[in-house]
Amino acid sequence: MIKNKIVPFNQVSLKHLFFKNEKMKDIQIIPTHRTRQLMKKMGIFFKANDTSLLLGYSGKTLMYLKDLPGKSKFAFTINNNNPYFQNITKLPAYIPNDKLLYFDNLNTQSNGKETILLHKSDFVEAENLIHLKKSKFEFSLNNSLGIIHLYFDFKMLKEQEDKNNIKWNYEIRFANRSTFWRYYFIKSRSQKPPTFKISHPKNGIKFLPAQIKKLTNGTLAWEVTSQESIPLRENYQDHFNATFKTSRESKREVTITLPNADYQKTRREVGEMDMEKKSGSNIIVKTVKMYSDIYVHI
């Protein structure tokens, strides 16, 4: 083995269903100050970008690493530079400031591929959130989305391992958020809401009947809301179409292509649901729904 060759032994990849080809953007995994010092002492190199973190060693440090007792711990922060990460990610609609995401490689599961997930479910979920006050960390978590603790037993490294045979290949997968799409059709003159037929070339999502609503600026609009939530995406392949009559008296139907939801414009609405308990009495349960409001002038 070439002594000065850098051999990668660990990779942590970030995936997100919102983005094209699931390639994460504006998120980085960065070693903490103490971990940087430890890696420098151990002769470990790292490379980070929006989609992954790569750790490696040089040939001359392999024997030193293999002689280390037990497991070595490395800590990393997940830094978020995307102000709309909460909008596009399937996580609780509201996350308190005293919670953050936590991952480690002590309890992992197979992804059915060469990579291993750093979370129990197929995607990151609320169960990956922890309370800060219950945990002790040696670094500041300001503006961090979460932390990762990685434990390595370097005795498992082999002389013949190279860049095509990474020993520990981990993955963190985020699902995209779904919202109820709420179209507001705005017309220059008021009239009774027509019957909107909204269709999509690839899905059969249905919409509720149109209702007249007054917008915050006083304008009247016809509100049409999807009956189920729809996943948000960075790029959409198709659009919904709306077919309607220009007036109640007209027999002519007009079909227009509708804009897709803007991930920058989502809103959380809290409602109430009346549920009957087994005892026969009723309880009021708070419900939280995420909406995407879309305005269309017709």
Q: Helix/strand-derived class?
A: mainly beta
Mean pLDDT: 84
Distance between the amino and carboxyl termini:
70 Å
Trace the largest sheet across and list its strands: 3-4-1-11-8-7
Task: Give the low-confidence spans.
Answer: none
For the record, the count of structural domains works out to 2
- Total helix count? 3
Query: How large is the radius of gyration?
Result: 26 Å
Largest sheet: 6 strands, mixed
Describe this entry's structure for a reader.
This protein is mostly beta strands. It folds into 2 domains: 6-174, no CATH class; 178-260 and 290-297, Immunoglobulin-like (Sandwich). The protein has helices spanning 33-42, 62-66, 85-88; strands at residues 6-16, 27-31, 44-48, 52-58, 72-80, 99-104, 109-110, 116-117, 129-131, 144-152, 168-174, 178-186, 197-199, 211-214, 220-225, 230-231, 241-245, 253-257, 266-276, 282-297. The strands form 4 sheets. A 6-stranded mixed beta sheet has the order 3-4-1-11-8-7. Strands 12, 14, 15, 16, 19 and 20 form a 6-stranded mixed beta sheet that branches. Strands 2-5-10-6-9 form a 5-stranded mixed beta sheet. A hairpin with a 5-residue loop joins strand 7 and strand 8 (116-117). The protein is elongated and about 85 Å long.
